Amino acid sequence: MPSDGKTSLTMSVAQREALLLAPYATFSATSRGREHPESEHPYRGPFQRDRDRILHSSAYRRLSGKMQVFTGEMGDYHRTRLTHTQEVATIARTIGRAIRLNEDLIEALALVHDIGHPPYGHAGEDVLNECLRDEGGFSHNQYGLTLVRELEKRFTSYPGLNLTYEVLDGQVSRVDKSRGQPQAALEVQLVDAADSTTYDAHDTDDAIKLGLVALDEMSQLPIIDECLRFVRQHYAALDTELIRKAVVHRLIELQVTDLIEFSLAELNRWNFASQAEAIQSGFRIQPSPVIGEQKRELEKFLYARVYRHPQLVMVRQRAQERIQKMFAGFVADSQLIPRKYQHRMATVGVRRAAADYIAGMTDSFFEETFAERFKTKSP
Ligand code: MG
Predict the structure, then answer these.
(1) What is the mean pLDDT of the segment spanning 103-130?
(2) How far is the CA of 373 from the centre of ligand 1 (A)?
(3) CA geometry: angle at 249 spanning 245 and 253, to 5°?
């Protein structure tokens, strides 16, 4: 409060959070800080600063040139890794606000969650994993950590973005997920649930728009059938394009409402007094059993009919062959690797440095580099 007796119009981050967040949320005031201690910012909290650092990083911007599921050759309607990330952040914030979690932390976690994807998404990841089989493998989650801790350059005296331990822990728990369900803050769990909500909806949208599947055919799935019924009940005589949009809108709304209602009911039942209690309890932010089952059916369908569509399988195979060839080329002649990654070779070896360089590329930069250096000249 100002000493002249006037009421202050500003509110500190701690005051805002004390007013708005539930006891089970992560509070900025109890943050464990950063590896390299920094003084507090006058009006941005620690997680807001993390969000901004991620947003302004070059790895984040490059997500615009990385495929989510569909490639640039297939048009410009569908999601890229960047627009997917933005949708995840928006949906996660909506749910986080409703269940009174820390929105700044949620946003930072959402913006960073896919930052480590190599070109050509999971196809790129699989082939780099194969290339590094004897060196501990490659995962986009682990590479995301490498990016924000080591490869991004922001400060003169140390590498990386110097993010808070809470954001790094979130990414570590994504790495650990391959070894079972790790204990994690509710904000981390929420971003995970929002990720699945988001891709289930937008992959449905993109697949129908691209003509890989028909909405009619998808209506055999209970969750799509329910959305379709809702749309037909509430809107008369929509054309095909608008029906698809309305169904996808409903698909998001249905999942988000379910996550909020189911989580709130469970949180009320548990009645956690602190974040630590919530983390240790084994409680998970997840869809209700009914919607959870319906989502699994939808995901099975998307897997079989969309992700394994012959058109996509072909794109992925071609990309994997080229990535493998580029990797072998860099390993055989490390002088082709830019200086920044050559420096890394001293600590991580030529194979990891080559994979790190390739993983940072956008799809189109990868293609340009490949055409320039590795394309076999036709006779
Ligand atoms: Mg994602």
Answers:
(1) 96
(2) 31
(3) 170
Whole-angstrom CA distances from 201 to 23, 299, 309 are 31, 10, 18
Protein residues near ligand 1, an ion, with CB under 5 A = 114, 195
Tokens representing 193? 């649930």
Q: Which residue has the tokens 């060839």?
A: 325
CA atoms within 13 A on the CB side of 364: 8
Q: Flag the least confident range among 90-99, 156-165, 342-351.
A: 342-351
* Average pLDDT rounded to a whole number, residues 39-48: 94
Contact 203, 69 (CB under 8 A): yes
Q: Which amino acid is at 157?
A: S
> pLDDT for 309-323, tens place per residue?
988 899 899 999 999
CB proximity list for 83: less than 8 A, separation 6 or greater: 68
pLDDT, averaged across the chain: 93
C-alpha–C-alpha distance, residues 309 and 303, integer Å: 9
Structure tokens at 1: 């409060």
Distance of CA 193 from the midpoint of ligand 1 (Å): 10
> 195 CA distance to ligand 1 centroid (A)?
5
CA of 241 to the centre of ligand 1 (A): 26
28-32: long-range contacts, CB 8 A cutoff, minimum separation 24: 28/102, 28/104, 30/275, 31/164, 31/165, 31/166, 32/164, 32/165, 32/166
Residue 115: CB atoms within 10 A of its CB come to: 24
Tens digit of each residue's pLDDT (9 = 90 or more) over 202-226? 999 999 999 999 999 999 999 999 9
